[in-house]
Amino acid sequence: MNRIAFITGATSGFGRACAHRFAEAGWSLVLSGRREERLAELREALEDKVPVHTAVLDVRDDAAVKAVVEALPDAFAGVTCLVNNAGLALAPQPAQQVDLADWHTMIDTNVRGLANVTHALLPTLIEQGAGTSIINVGSVAGDTPYPGSHVYGATKAFVKQFSYNLRCDLLGTGVRVTDVAPGLAETEFTLVRTGGNQDAHDALYQGTTPLSAEDIAEQIFYVATLPVHININRMDVMPVRQAWAPFAIDRD
Ligand SMILES: NC(=O)C1=CN([C@@H]2O[C@H](COP(=O)(O)OP(=O)(O)OC[C@H]3O[C@@H](n4cnc5c(N)ncnc54)[C@H](OP(=O)(O)O)[C@@H]3O)[C@@H](O)[C@H]2O)C=CC1
Ligand SMILES: O=CCS(=O)(=O)O
């Protein structure tokens, strides 16, 4: 099988690390994200090793997603692995203090965007058949509630259930579906979540050992390259130095 990975959110963090990891193994790459300069840098860094196609793409725009998929050059059209990674958290304050627009952005990106790309690539993946994969980047926030997670965690709960439900419908096609659910990982995630607050970023990761983007890329690559009869349904990955907290209790 010609191995072609379509990675969303390839301009930073997990997505960029996946681009490097899959390139190391010789996969052809379709790399997308909104930041054109970063895509160009990535293409320049990788195209000596493997064929690379880049597409400036906002996953929230379903027509643009469809157009990018339909316009894939022949050498990239037979996608065998979709890494649905593009996503973000915003507004870490309590739900009652945040702007509705931030909730909409998270829903539009993490839910609608992921659905847009999946819908556009499903026929291709089914056509490629056994050994193809849809790897959805969820989060531990999808099943562990915590303050300030409100809509973000709910979007990741969608990712989990959508992944499981897709498995049901894709039974018999050979297409695998996995929800990779990371915990604390140092990327640009916290900068985005806090509106560019470098102190908040530094404070969250200092004095502990978070996951790196490369750690998660390695897990995603592992899932994508398992023998074709194996489907990891969900992979919940935390750093050793992270665990759950006790219930919070309101007292008089
Ligand atoms: N870091 C963490 O602790 C964890 C992160 N996650 C999830 O991992 C995924 C990747 O995040 P991470 O690498 O950490 O964060 P980064 O902020 O480093 O990367 C996010 C990526 O998503 C892309 N993106 C955001 N919005 C859009 C959009 N509308 N259209 C297309 N691309 C978009 C960004 O590209 P661009 O801005 O160029 O469009 C960027 O490449 C997200 O889904 C996140 O929720 C899950 C668990 C833990
Ligand atoms: O999804 C990101 C991990 S966390 O910030 O929710 O713990």
TrEMBL record:
Residues 3-183 form the Ketoreductase domain. Keywords: Oxidoreductase. It comes from the Bacteria. SMART domains: PKS_KR. InterPro entries: KR_dom (IPR057326), NAD(P)-bd_dom_sf (IPR036291), Sc_DH/Rdtase_CS (IPR020904), SDR_fam (IPR002347). PANTHER family: ALCOHOL DEHYDROGENASE (PTHR42901). Belongs to the short-chain dehydrogenases/reductases (SDR) family. This is Sulfoacetaldehyde reductase. It comes from Halomonas salina.
